[in-house]
Amino acid sequence: MRLLIVDDDARIRDGLAKAIEWKKHGLTLLPPAASAEEALARFAEERPDIVLTDIEMTGMTGLEMASRIKRGYPRTEIVVLSGYDQFAYMQRAIREGVSDYILKTSGPDEIVRVALNARRRLLGKEGPGASSAGPEQLLRSGALEDLLFHGLSPERIAKEELEKLFPEEDSLPGSGGRRLQVVIVSLRQPGVRMSAGFSHFTIRSRLRERFAAVTLRYGKRTLAVLNGRGEEAARALRETLAELEAQLGCRLFVAAGCAVDRPEALADSLREAEAASRYEWLMAESGFAAYEEVRERRGIDPACSKEEELALVQVLKSGNAAELREMANRLCERIRSDPEATPESLHAYVQALLTAGYRWLENTASRTGRQAPRGRMRLPAPEELLAGPERTLTERLEAIMNEYLELGSEEHPYIAEAVAYVKENLGRNVTLQQVASHIHTNPNYLSDLFRRETGSTYLEFVTKERMEKAKAMLAGTGAKIKEIARSVGYEDIKYFTGLFKRHTGLTPSEYRSHY
């Protein structure tokens, strides 16, 4: 395992190099670097496993260097040398991926202890008793990482490293049918018997044992390159998945790229496995998504139907959060069961449904003369939605429902919209049933609501509104009384005149003369 010391102070640099017998502790000391820039320039070629660096140096700082190293070579262990006055840097150091720190005044024993801890962390990533030889050590030297993440061709990687990565002769290009395939394994539900870390160690061990796989940690997931034949390997992988779930007491999800016969094509297989991993929610029941299968899916219709919009509006108006959650779950489950569903079409459909909800909310606010909703339309990003469609959709719809309820906080929201509809249609003979249908509620419920919220029956309310409009037209326009009667829904002028007098004590002509 290779160690690189980086410090612009020659005394410290040389002292660390000469005061400790690094080889005795299983570490190969690379020539120390006098600056962060020098270390980065040499990094790709020398590939140190552990970097021991000062924080403050002339030019690029140790933390800036650490950040760059971690972006390109995330498995590298970085230990920083700190002075007594530099502890303020440590919080940032943690963010940049620094593994440990040590004071510059520390003695050789303490420095060795920290370096060996870093070495153990590298070995420990594959669990107790991991060997420092074989494929896992080659991973630390970067051969597989170069193939997967840095796009290097096999010609630029030592032949012996390739042979150790893929040890069986027929796994190499031109062999008798062996295929290499990238798979990504996720813990869908935490194990009840083991921690996440130990669960992944068990997964990696089993994959190496069963498939001669090369494995590594991949964020919070396990990445493996399987070495096997097409259908036979796929069947064995599913069996192994079931065995691991039973052993670990958890649910797993495997995303598989297409099998390839050339090491340089592994980067393509990785991209395909990543694409398949986006199906984790859609294919949760099977626990397995193969890119060669899901790439044929055409996607669902991203537009929501008129019937779905009407059903959504009715639930939003009800103010019933439980019914809303049930609706969101039902919609999501219907999409999940569709064999053509894709992550992209799921996201597009949810966007369309939420947009319909927001549009209805804005129209309702406008019709009732209320202030527009405070919150801006928030549509979920794809990754946010795919992490939990039911939860995300429910949260967004509940936000719309709450905005709607606030619109009618002074009176029941159904009444606010019913009143607005009645006022817009005073010239028509609009029945209670028609109003109830317009606002998607039951006529009997609306009738009771009118009596409770306004103190009047529906007919009393409509008549009152008609008389108020007639009074305004008589006082403010020169329209004939017959025209006014028709504009408020009465064809019979005698009936209108008698009704107007009962409400005002004056005939329409007398009212106009008086006002």
TrEMBL record:
PROSITE patterns: HTH_ARAC_FAMILY_1, HTH_ARAC_FAMILY_2, RESPONSE_REGULATORY. Residues 2-119 form the Response regulatory domain. CDD domains: REC_YesN-like (cd17536). It comes from the Bacteria. Signal peptide: none annotated. GO terms for biological process: phosphorelay signal transduction system. Residues 416-514 form the HTH araC/xylS-type domain. InterPro entries: CdaR_GGDEF (IPR041522), CheY-like_superfamily (IPR011006), Homeodomain-like_sf (IPR009057), HTH_AraC (IPR018060), HTH_AraC-typ_CS (IPR018062), Sig_transdc_resp-reg_receiver (IPR001789), Tscrpt_reg_AraC-type_HTH (IPR020449). Keywords: DNA-binding, Phosphoprotein, Transcription, Transcription regulation. GO terms for molecular function: DNA-binding transcription factor activity; sequence-specific DNA binding. The modification 4-aspartylphosphate is found at D54. This is Response regulator. It comes from Cohnella zeiphila.
